[in-house]
Amino acid sequence: xxxxxxxxxxxxxxxxxxxxxxxxxxxxxxxxxxxxxxxxxxxxxxxxxxxxxxxxxxxxxxxxxxxxxxxxxxxxxxxxxxxxxxxxxxxxxxxxxxxxxxxxxxxxxxxxxxxxxxxxxxxxxxxxxxxxxxxxxxxxxxxxxxxxxxxxxxxxxxxxxxxxx
Length: 165
Known about the structure:
Elements: H1 5-12, H2 26-36, E1 46-51, E2 56-61, H3 65-69, H4 72-82, E3 86-88, H5 94-103, E4 116-117, E5 123-127, H6 134-148, E6 151-155
Parallel strand pairs: 2-3, 5-6
Antiparallel strand pairs: 1-2, 4-5
């Protein structure tokens, strides 16, 4: 598991409180998860304790579920260490995705509509005020994929006066 020296030192100590079912105490589990991701490119934006009607578990929310896939082994290691079941939130953080798109628009272009996450939740659609050259669009797509795990779809804007019907 990828950790800093501080996390490894803490993990080797016997200071951990465990519950009656041997899981790490919830706040310590949160700290361990946060610590495990501190050197990672993507970090969960929220760690929450949830209940599904049968059992409680920890839920990690990333910018998109696709990003979490990159950390499958780390998450499995954390489950073994904390003895908590860890699940990934199935919905994207739409605000963070839209901010990533807005903050990376190529110079000389602007968004003319609010970007939208497509229903399949694997892509984000943008409308810009001009034709973005293919090479610039490819570079932008790569940046968005790296940040969000989503494919960028640059949609042509309908002509003025076209209501779309």
